Amino acid sequence: MTKSYGENTVLNDIILEVNQGDIFGFLGNNGSGKTTTIRILFGLVRPSRGTFQVFNYLCPAHLNQAKHLMGGVIDIPSFYDNLSGRDNLHLLASLSNYRVSKSEIESVSALVGIETIIDKPVGVYSNGQKRRLSIAQALLPQPKIIILDEPTSGLDPQGVKSIRNLILQLNQEQGLTVFFSSHLLSEVQKICNRISIINKGKIIKTVDVKDFLLDSFFSIRASPVEDLLHFLKEKNISYQVHEKYVLASFDGNHIPEIIKELTNRNISIYEIFRHQLSLEDAFLATIEGENQ
What we know:
CATH topology of the largest domain: Rossmann fold
Number of domains: 2
Shape: elongated
Number of strands: 14
CATH class of the largest domain: Alpha Beta
Number of helices: 11
Radius of gyration: 22 Å
CATH superfamily of the largest domain: P-loop containing nucleotide triphosphate hydrolases
Order of helices and strands: EEEHEEHEHHHEHEHEEHEHEEHEH
Helix content: 25-40%
CATH architecture of the largest domain: 3-Layer(aba) Sandwich
Structural class: alpha/beta
Strand order of the largest sheet: 6-7-8-3-9-10
């Protein structure tokens, strides 16, 4: 799928596959294309080229049908502060021609943990409670997938933990597929089973989180370093140069092949070992390697 504004291409032939039951993290720097992608999924922006499929519905042609299977929160939630949480949910549902029952509001407010304040004016809600109200609103169509754009933005540590636990609950107890973008990579690492990394409008990696962190990064000490870097560039292997080693990202199954080729190039290898990173470090290494 591609999206361009004039000569500016903000999404360049991206391919995403989210499996049913995933908690899927969509990662990228500001301006990388995350929010544009999410806006396309909800029909707020039309792709310049390409299609996407939500369950059995090919979109954008059948987006109206697909929307009944999706709930979402885009950007910072906005409500009428003088109205209660209940009245806000009724109003927002009516804008989508969805007639919500009292029992549905009771159910979703209890599910997201705001049942005790649902009849209070939203103006007295904390930021975390407003986030929960926005997720309640996203759950009213009874979706199969929920899409969240920066769901923990602006929250304090307690609020972040609360939303993290709610996402896990929705996935594990309600069977919802969750697709969300976030800058808090420590949170992504705790709850996501799969991620995609987007950089400058291109998907550069889609991978299981455990595989990404355990099997993808290796420290190499070799000489001459310049020849090692030339080899890595030639093979399109992303890397970071550190003081005492080069951190490279590749499939561990290729180590014998890499050692053989380095040896044939008269590059002396002193050490290659698996380097386990946090998701934040792995993300930065991947992005920096891609930008070389």
